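Lab notes, practical 5.
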Amino acid sequence: MRPSARLHAELTAIIDRAYEAADQADGSVIRTLLGDLTGTGLDQRTAAFLGQAHRLALDTTAALTSVLDTHRFGSCCSECGTSDPCRTIRGISEIFIPISGAP
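Output from the prediction step:
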C-alpha cells in the first residue's frame, strides 16, 4: 500500500473508532450525569459544552468521514490529484496521528 493510501487508511480507522465510541455512548446517561453535577461548582460554560459534547463528537466525526471520503487515495488524491498526501490529509493527520499513538 502506498504511503499516502496507508496514511488515509490510518486516519479513516481513527475517525471510525471515534465515531463508534460516541455512537455507543448513551446520551440519556450523559444528560443524567450532567444533571447530577448541578450544584457541584461546575461553571455554566463547561456544563453547556458537556451538554453538547456528545452531539458534537458525532457530528464532527461524521463530517471528517465525509472529508476523508472526498480525499481518498488510489494512485493519487481523488480530490486534489496529488500523489503525496494532500494538504487536507496532512492537516488532519497532524492532529489525529499523535493523539492515537499511531506511527
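Observations recorded by the TA: The mean pLDDT is 89. The longest helix spans residues 44-70.
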